[in-house]
């Protein structure tokens, strides 16, 4: 994190706290032209291992709602409505017990929703938010965000000494830095809009309440003054709500 709103991503979502101060512009870091930064292309196998490790590291350093608890039961119920996979990739849902307002998803199907977000959202609104995060995964945004986070994080140091085994060589500190950069990553405007539309289409296909996606953005707009949201500084929560309203009105 990356609903940054959802903004994840890797979470995404990456990816940790709903404050502008914690936002990290991955694309901007690469575009800055730093000699220390080069895009790193990870194989699918390396990416899977990397996201598995990053998710596990995040879980280890977070307070997770116990299985069967009120928060967990609610999230699992919502997850069943959205499906148990993203384009064939199995997903797993967990709740982080924190007042932060956030949610993110990694390319390996690791979906994490913060209790602070759950406290302010209805079930229909949460379905829209989670659907958005799943959109980042389905559309490849989370994969790209993790690759970029790897390029600009301390994890890159491992590549200088471990060659092809760089992912295996990551220590807890490097994993922590990588995971934080992924979770706090900002997706581009086009990526956010595409993830919004993915959520809309998924909700519509499953005959779920589309209005929840609108009211979720409206609630976020009240938090950020309509200027930014969990996921990025653009487009605004207000504009995103209007876009979904227009799609509902058009029936498309």
Overview of this protein structure:
Strands 3-5-4 form a three-stranded mixed β-sheet, sandwiched between helices. The chain has helices at 26-31, 44-60, 70-82, 115-120, 123-138, 141-152, 156-162, 172-183, 189-205, 211-224, 237-250, and strands spanning 85-86, 89-90, 92-96, 103-105, 110-114. The two termini are 28 Å apart. It has one domain. Helix 3 packs across helix 5, helix 5 packs across helix 10 (211-224) and helix 10 packs antiparallel against helix 11. The protein contains eleven helices and five strands. It is globular and about 50 Å long. It has 252 residues and is mainly alpha-helical. 47% of the residues are buried. Strand 1 (85-86) and strand 2 (89-90) form a beta hairpin.
Total of domains: 1
Strand content: 5-15%
Structural class determined from secondary elements = mainly alpha
Using only CA atoms, what is the Rg? 17 Å
Strand order of the largest sheet: 3-5-4
Q: Termini distance? A: 28 Å
- Mean pLDDT equals 80
What coarse outline follows from CA principal-axis ratios? globular
Helical content class: 40-55%
Q: What's the total count of β strands?
A: 5
Order of helices and strands: HHHEEEEEHHHHHHHH
Number of helices: 11
Low-confidence stretches: 4-39
């Amino acid at each position: 994190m990356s609903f940054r709103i959802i903004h994840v991503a890797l979470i995404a979502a990456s990816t940790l706290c709903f404050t502008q101060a914690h936002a990290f512009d991955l694309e901007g870091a690469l575009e800055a032209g730093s000699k220390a930064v080069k895009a790193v292309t990870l194989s699918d196998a390396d990416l899977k291992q990397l996201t598995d490790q990053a998710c596990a590291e995040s879980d280890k350093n977070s307070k997770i709602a116990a299985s069967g608890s009120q928060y967990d039961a609610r999230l699992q119920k919502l997850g069943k409505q959205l499906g148990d996979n993203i384009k064939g990739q199995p997903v797993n849902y967990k709740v982080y017990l924190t007042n932060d307002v956030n949610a993110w998803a990694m390319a390996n199907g690791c979906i994490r929703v913060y209790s602070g977000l759950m406290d302010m959202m209805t079930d229909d609104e949460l379905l829209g938010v989670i659907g958005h995060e799943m959109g980042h995964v389905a559309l490849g945004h989370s994969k790209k965000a993790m690759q970029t986070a790897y390029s600009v994080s301390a994890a890159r140091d491992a590549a200088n000494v471990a060659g092809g085994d760089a992912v295996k060589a990551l220590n807890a500190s490097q994993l922590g830095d990588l995971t934080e950069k992924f979770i706090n990553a900002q997706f581009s405007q086009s990526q956010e809009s595409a993830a919004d539309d993915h959520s809309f289409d998924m909700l519509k296909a499953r005959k779920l309440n589309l209005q929840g996606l609108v009211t979720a953005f409206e609630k976020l707009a009240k938090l950020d003054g309509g200027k930014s949201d969990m996921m990025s500084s653009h487009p605004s929560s207000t504009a995103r709500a209007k876009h979904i309203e227009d799609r509902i009105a058009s029936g498309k």
